[in-house]
Amino acid sequence: MFHKCGGCGKKREFENSGKFRVNANGNSVDIWLIYRCIKCKHSWNLTIYERTRLGKIPAELFEAFQENDEETALRYGSNAAFLKKNNAEFKE
To answer: How many CB atoms lie within 10 A of CB 53?
Structure first.
């Protein structure tokens, strides 16, 4: 998948890091799947949940995010709708 890299300044290929970033702020939580530029390793966070009440996320799924569950990262990383929502571009 391709995206403009903030480190390189050019459109580059990014790969799934298999890691999530979870950020809680009061009663809401943000969750991202982290991708990395294959050239410079600059990160690109793809939004999974944004300003979502913790109670709206299934407990098992939230635990998977916190533990950087590899299977969950692969599932999101292969979901075309999720990738499209995050403006990922694919080589034709």
So the answer is: 11
Q: Degrees (nearest 5) of the Cα angle 88, 74, 32?
A: 60
For 3-58, write each residue's pLDDT tens digit: 999 999 999 999 999 999 999 988 899 999 999 999 999 999 999 999 999 999 99
Residue 31 has a CB neighbour count (10 Å cut-off) of 22
CB atoms inside a 10 Å sphere around CB 46: 23
- Per the CB < 8 A criterion, the answer to whether 38 and 15 are in contact is yes
- The Cα–Cα gap between 11 and 18 comes to 21
pLDDT digits (tens, 9 = 90+) for 56-72: 999 999 999 999 999 99
Distance spanning both ends of the chain, measured CA to CA: 10
